[in-house]
DNA sequence: GCTTTCGTTTGATCTGCATCAAAGTCAGTG
DNA sequence: CACTGACTTTGATGCAGATCAAACGAAAGC
């Protein structure tokens, strides 16, 4: 996705991801100028909550740098991550007053925000923004559905391989390289966060990561630094037939 | 959802769900007229495929009567349902050439369709349609994320109770009643289809349905006809904290 | 009426992952 | 440098749900 969008980054655009993602592809100077006037930035430290489920949410925005997660929690504490927000991903829902999920910064995070009211007014006045938002939402929906297959039917080993493949792909995309041959990247998640994403326990995650290492599907340096010698092998382990694959 | 949308059904509107769902809320005569000119109907028998994943999909549409499912399948045959389409739900993605999922009619099905090209042109010309589509897509995304929690973290019994609650709610909504007290409805799915939706085997589904019956959470007449004496009890069994709940 | 077929139920057994428990690694800090 | 706390790994054991297997009930065809 990021590769795709990079084609649309204009000289006129600043670092604000809304402009890249929601507008740039078909932007004109007026729209950009208007967005520029109402935007502002927010920073969060690693581990800090951005917003809790149920809280009033009077802004929308997108990630500039860092990583945030969307999670749902049951009363007894069981947690399921339902989204992973990487740079350029959008947060918040136009037309909804309160947050539906817990949003947490897992690394230091900078977001580019717009107060909801003026943003919604702009959306009405500027169809391009709404259209771009629809595209992004449809992508997220596809990602969520692919994740449903993972959660419902894949084994622990396949889940781990899938997550690694997705992170590898996103990482390669950010570096504007295609994910073939040897890939090197850092895991942006702890074992526990991986477990919350995959519907597993952290112990199982640890065991399966070790197993993939033992079987030379990956190699590890420290806990986080991963090398994937053969990306196709990893995809095979992931049980993926398709090679689309999103991470939202 | 259907209750909500019923408020917007105008006298001028025909039975075409696109008009209800995508346009009616804020429709004007011109838009309706234009949509009316390009729409057509398709019928499918129970069990018939609507489209296979990967096939060219040159239309979009929505369900008028009957029920369809979206499923993903892995090479080795493991299947996961990722959507359940009830009357008024939308199928197809503007801007995508081929289907991403298998769509199957589980009952006799009538769909109201539009060829993709003219529909997309109308979307560009008529921002209301795009905005309504964005709302619907965001609802589906919420439903998918709630389903991720179910698939990743709920027990088999909770999964069954959740599915029954969702079907009961949707059924009550179609009858314009609020889902309290005793509810009676027919399951639109076989045990196997329920299993595919819940990430279980059909045997486990059968056992857990029997268990809920034994514990008087539900009663059954035949295999399909369900009575829920106490909806709140069912929600409790489902482990649901929220009482939103979508079924897409 | 009998047989076939499809969906379902129920029983016996197995297994992948959860759970419980302990110990190892590493960065930060007094 | 030892101490602390966060994160991770590894081991032992238990159990929810999968798998394998058989039988049941109802509808459809002959």
From TrEMBL, chains A, B:
<dbReference type="InterPro" id="IPR000595">
    <property type="entry name" value="cNMP-bd_dom"/>
</dbReference>
<keyword id="KW-0804">Transcription</keyword>
<dbReference type="InterPro" id="IPR036388">
    <property type="entry name" value="WH-like_DNA-bd_sf"/>
</dbReference>
<dbReference type="InterPro" id="IPR050397">
    <property type="entry name" value="Env_Response_Regulators"/>
</dbReference>
<dbReference type="InterPro" id="IPR014710">
    <property type="entry name" value="RmlC-like_jellyroll"/>
</dbReference>
<dbReference type="InterPro" id="IPR018335">
    <property type="entry name" value="Tscrpt_reg_HTH_Crp-type_CS"/>
</dbReference>
<keyword id="KW-0805">Transcription regulation</keyword>
<dbReference type="InterPro" id="IPR012318">
    <property type="entry name" value="HTH_CRP"/>
</dbReference>
<dbReference type="Pfam" id="PF00027">
    <property type="entry name" value="cNMP_binding"/>
</dbReference>
<dbReference type="InterPro" id="IPR036390">
    <property type="entry name" value="WH_DNA-bd_sf"/>
</dbReference>
<dbReference type="InterPro" id="IPR018490">
    <property type="entry name" value="cNMP-bd_dom_sf"/>
</dbReference>
<dbReference type="GO" id="GO:0005829">
    <property type="term" value="C:cytosol"/>
</dbReference>
<keyword id="KW-0238">DNA-binding</keyword>
<dbReference type="GO" id="GO:0003677">
    <property type="term" value="F:DNA binding"/>
</dbReference>
<dbReference type="Pfam" id="PF13545">
    <property type="entry name" value="HTH_Crp_2"/>
</dbReference>
<feature type="domain" description="Cyclic nucleotide-binding">
    <location>
        <begin position="23"/>
        <end position="140"/>
    </location>
</feature>
<protein>
    <submittedName>
        <fullName>Transcriptional regulator, Crp/Fnr family</fullName>
    </submittedName>
</protein>
<feature type="domain" description="HTH crp-type">
    <location>
        <begin position="154"/>
        <end position="232"/>
    </location>
</feature>
<dbReference type="GO" id="GO:0003700">
    <property type="term" value="F:DNA-binding transcription factor activity"/>
</dbReference>
């Amino acid at each position: 996705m990021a590769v795709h969008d990079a084609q649309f980054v204009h000289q006129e655009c600043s670092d604000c991801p809304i402009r890249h993602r929601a507008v740039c592809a078909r932007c004109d100077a007026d729209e950009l100028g208007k967005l520029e006037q109402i935007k502002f930035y927010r920073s969060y430290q690693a581990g800090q909550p951005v917003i809790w489920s149920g809280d009033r949410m009077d802004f929308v925005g997108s990630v500039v740098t860092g990583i945030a997660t969307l999670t749902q929690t049951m009363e007894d504490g069981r947690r399921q991550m339902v989204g992973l927000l990487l740079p350029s991903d959008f947060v918040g829902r136009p037309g909804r007053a309160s947050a539906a999920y817990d949003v947490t910064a897992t690394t230091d995070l900078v977001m580019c925000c717009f107060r909801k009211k003026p943003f919604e007014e702009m959306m009405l006045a500027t169809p391009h923004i709404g259209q771009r938002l629809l595209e992004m939402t449809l992508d997220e929906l596809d990602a969520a559905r692919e994740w449903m297959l993972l959660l419902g039917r894949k084994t622990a080993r396949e889940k781990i391989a899938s997550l690694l493949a997705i992170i590898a792909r996103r990482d390669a995309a950010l570096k504007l390289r295609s994910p073939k041959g040897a890939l090197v990247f850092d895991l942006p998640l702890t074992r526990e966060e991986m477990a919350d994403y995959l519907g597993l326990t952290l112990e199982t995650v640890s065991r399966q990561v070790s197993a993939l290492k033992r079987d030379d599907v990956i190699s590890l340096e420290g806990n986080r630094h991963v090398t994937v010698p053969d990306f196709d092998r990893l995809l095979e382990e992931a049980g993926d037939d398709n090679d689309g694959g999103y991470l939202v």
